[in-house]
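Run log // design_07
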């Protein structure tokens, strides 16, 4: 493991430190800061020549600053003659912009892939992409992990009876089906429609039976929590006795925390792919650690072992 080096930007240093503790190594030393003119400066403070370098940086808020920080770090490692550079991006921003669904709009998820590759990344390690086709935007190897096992184990331990797993839209239904199978529960799907380019959705119908049952919604991310609150209210209106929720990425932007606090949802379970401010940690929000999962994936990539075997 002497050839393995793990570094972090400013997006989520606590996650990087936890990963290093799992691996039993020290966090790599680097200066990463912003000048008063908003230019970002990076300096690697130790030798990385021919080393296997992993850079931990979720594209969380401030998204664009963290993205540029990551690109500059990758460039610094490339110019320092690192042997291989793996961008570890637990949360891949701009994932919703994965196709042209309107005239004259960009495919920003593809643009981010091109930027990372041009900067010098040799590999990507990420978690629960918003759309599976984003993997195909890269011409370098992509390893996509999933929090499904972490989340399903949590709910197994809760042992909720009379449970139905609910996909918050059709796009997440395959993920929800896998969760339902692990919990030995039936599946329901909320049919919704996004209104324009604002964070507003309209619930159209529920496919499946939820009356008299405990409902567990699943999604890849919770942003403003508008969709979550709408789903919770709709499920209760259709006769669900209680509603729980889970997702991988707790973006919690804008009014999200206030909406969750006022919502009748019993518990919201997320992972720490994105740092969750302590001020935002309501009693009903549970944060599960992903450092062991990412750490094991990094160890396997470094030693040439299978990533897929982790989930068998």
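design_07 sequence
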């Amino acid at each position: 493991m002497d050839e393995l080096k793990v570094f972090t930007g400013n997006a989520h240093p606590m996650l990087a430190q936890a990963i290093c503790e799992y691996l039993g190594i020290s966090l790599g030393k680097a200066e990463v800061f912003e000048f008063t003119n908003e230019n970002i400066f990076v300096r690697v403070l130790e030798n990385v020549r021919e080393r296997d370098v992993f850079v931990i940086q979720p594209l969380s808020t401030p998204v664009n600053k963290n993205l540029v920080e990551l690109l500059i770090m990758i460039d610094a490692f490339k110019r320092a003659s690192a042997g291989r550079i793996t961008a570890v991006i637990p949360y891949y921003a701009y994932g919703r912009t994965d196709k042209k669904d309107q005239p004259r709009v960009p495919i920003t998820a593809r643009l981010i892939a091109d930027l990372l590759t041009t900067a010098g990344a040799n590999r990507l390690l990420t978690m629960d992409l918003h759309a599976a086709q984003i993997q195909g935007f890269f011409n370098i190897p992509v390893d996509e992990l999933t929090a499904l096992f972490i989340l399903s184990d949590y709910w197994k331990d809760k042992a909720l009876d009379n449970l139905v797993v609910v996909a918050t839209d059709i796009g997440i239904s395959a993920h929800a089906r896998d969760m339902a199978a692990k919990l030995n529960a039936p599946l329901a799907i909320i049919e919704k429609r996004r209104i324009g380019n604002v964070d507003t959705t309209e619930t159209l119908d529920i496919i499946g039976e939820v009356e008299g049952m405990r409902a567990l919604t699943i999604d890849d991310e919770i942003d403003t929590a508008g969709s979550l609150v709408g789903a919770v209210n709709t499920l209760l209106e259709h006769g669900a006795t209680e509603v729980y929720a889970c997702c991988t990425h707790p973006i919690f932007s804008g009014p999200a925390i206030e909406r969750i606090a006022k919502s009748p949802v019993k518990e919201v379970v997320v992972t720490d792919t994105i740092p969750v401010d302590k001020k935002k940690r309501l009693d009903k929000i549970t944060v599960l650690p992903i450092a062991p999962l990412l750490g094991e994936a990094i160890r396997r990539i470094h030693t040439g072992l299978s990533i897929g075997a982790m989930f068998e």
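The two ends are 25 Å apart (CA to CA).
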